[in-house]
DNA sequence: CTGAAAGCGCTTACAG
DNA sequence: CTGAAAGCGCTTACAG
């Protein structure tokens, strides 16, 4: 990259003059028109761009500490708002003097994120929805800044999780108490860590509670409303529909409910539904039917993340902090207690 | 703020030694334990934090250009994902070597955003959901970096808008063609620029098309599912429900639809609904009933924003660019053509 | 009107 | 084991 020095050399003027011109002070500092022109041309031919970092140093612009949330913009993009609002609210509540910034990344490519491998860009990274590969990258300690893992676990990092296992068990217990013997499951296809863990936990709980899950009743679906709808169609087509359905995400549940409504399968009379809830709680509340969810405590997790971030900034977080938040079951029409 | 120089002075060692210690190279560089300790203590007593900007300059870490999306985390947080995904996809499509970052702000307080008043932090700002005050701030040219206004208009800035006026007219035309004479409206309370403009445009269109809107049938609602639900309750309570309802946001429409379902008011037989659509198109598609929307072309607007950003980075955007994108009417069950 | 010089706060060879 | 010095790319008094 050309520097101001190169521009000065090409234009045949001093560095000071270049600085004045590129900062638009040519008139006010009474730089000769001709000189200013020479500078502009040199800038253009070299493709010169001022170095922001140098400018900031010189201008004593240190800025506030920056907390970066890393979040992938795949099908989980819809969960971002709730978490971001949670982070933001906690920053406000604590009157932290920090900037909160969202960086998007692609699963498995976290290692490409320069904000993580360079210790001077952000002060703290909250990393959400990491894939197995992303976790490997982190575990190999290639991240140069303090990391808070969001809903993932690595011993040597700060982590904030939702107690999905207990919640899956509780969801299964509800079905068991109601005497359901057969349960269907709609789960996200692919190997996202959290969803497969949630589904696995639910299946284990069913086994423990002596409920039967025919493998053909575990439908894998693309994580979208349409995916949920397609899964519901498959279940109906297969026939012999169980009276209980578990979904590992409310997005799938909403898509599925649409089809049950269309096919006049009454929820909850003919089919009771429970879903994990990752969207804002009001979303599932205002569906028709409203959907009973094990609501992931995103807000509490976000608050805790900021609490940890604050202690990192204060240098009081020596040992990794591992926080676990309890989801809340929100009983709605799709499965009343 | 204390500098490395202060730490060195207090610890009674050289700057180099301090640098080595604070960068965790004490062992490897065989710094005497005692020396390292003195440094650590000086760091602690002074509360020294290394200056990231200086580090970056020294480490020749210039980084990529940064495009910052400014978005408020109020009730409009739920619209963020769709726009962000749109921006991200276009960055990818163009293989731009830029960082995309989201900065949250509070309406009316855009002027506090240091990223805008300091020209060295971000290279380009895309500003969404600006309030009138925020626009004043921008118009007063206090922003030091190139700005792209998202769904707002100021002559001297790059702007990308949705043609809400034409769309509102088209929505009204649909009702008019179906012979509706009376129409109800649910609109967002408060003075958000876009929503009030949409509602106003719709009301104007109704007047032009000789449809009657009783002012008492224009219900102001908090922008949330609950707000939409409350508005629907008000409409029902008032009695003499029109057969056509317009909502300025799909969030309101979804909340309202829930109540109509509960009250067994058949959509569309007893009441036809059209809403502006700010959420992803699939959301309203999978509601029960699915909701006919004038879908704001967020994706196209995002693409255009990135196109403008690219030309700014290439210095080929001399004059302000003003782009207008056409919304698309998506016919769903709530109002078939 | 223009330029030489100082200095922002660091890191990194290099010398001892 | 430790320190003096150079220098990252700028901006800003200051001198002329």
TrEMBL record, chains A, B:
InterPro entries assigned to the protein according to its UniProt record, in alphabetical order: HTH_LacI, LacI/GalR-like_sensor, Lambda_DNA-bd_dom_sf, Peripla_BP_I
Source organism's superkingdom? Bacteria
Any Pfam family: LacI
Q: Which residues form the HTH lacI-type domain?
A: 2-59
Q: Any transmembrane segments, and where? A: none
Q: Does the keyword Transcription regulation apply?
A: yes
| Keywords assigned | DNA-binding, Transcription, Transcription regulation
Matching PANTHER family: HTH-TYPE TRANSCRIPTIONAL REGULATOR GALS, LACI-RELATED TRANSCRIPTIONAL REPRESSOR
Q: What is this protein called?
A: LacI family purine nucleotide synthesis repressor
Q: From which organism does this entry originate?
A: Youngiibacter multivorans
């Amino acid at each position: 990259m050309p520097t101001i020095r190169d521009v000065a050399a090409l234009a045949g003027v001093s560095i000071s003059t270049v600085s004045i011109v590129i900062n638009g002070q040519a008139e006010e500092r009474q730089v000769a028109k001709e000189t200013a022109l020479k500078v502009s041309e040199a800038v253009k031919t070299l493709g010169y761009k001022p170095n922001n970092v140098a400018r900031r140093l010189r201008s004593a612009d240190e800025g506030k500490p920056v907390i970066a949330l890393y979040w992938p913009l795949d099908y989980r993009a819809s969960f971002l708002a709730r978490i971001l609002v949670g982070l933001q609210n906690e920053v406000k509540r604590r009157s932290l003097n920090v900037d909160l910034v969202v960086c998007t990344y692609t699963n498995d490519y976290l290692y490409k994120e320069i904000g993580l491998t360079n210790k001077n860009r952000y002060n703290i990274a909250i990393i959400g929805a990491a894939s197995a590969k992303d976790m490997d990258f982190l575990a190999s300690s290639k991240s140069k800044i303090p990391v808070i893992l969001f809903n993932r676990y690595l011993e040597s990092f700060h982590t904030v999780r939702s107690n999905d296992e207990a919640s899956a068990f509780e969801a299964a217990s509800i079905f068991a108490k109601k005497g359901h013997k057969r349960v269907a499951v709609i789960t996200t296809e692919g190997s996202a860590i959290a969803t497969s863990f949630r589904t696995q936990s639910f299946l284990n709980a069913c086994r423990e509670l002596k409920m039967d899950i025919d493998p053909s009743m575990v439908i894998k679906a693309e994580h979208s409303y349409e995916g949920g709808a397609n899964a519901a169609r498959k279940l109906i087509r297969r026939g012999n529909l169980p009276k209980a359905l578990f979904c590992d995400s409310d997005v799938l549940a909403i898509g599925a409910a649409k089809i049950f409504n269309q096919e006049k399968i009454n929820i909850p009379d003919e089919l009771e539904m429970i879903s994990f809830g990752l969207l804002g709680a009001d979303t599932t509340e205002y569906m028709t039917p409203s959907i009973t969810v094990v609501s992931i405590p995103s807000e509490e997790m976000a608050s805790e993340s900021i609490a940890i971030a604050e202690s990192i900034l204060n240098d009081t977080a020596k040992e990794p902090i591992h926080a676990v938040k309890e989801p809340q079951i929100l009983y709605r029409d799709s499965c009343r207690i």
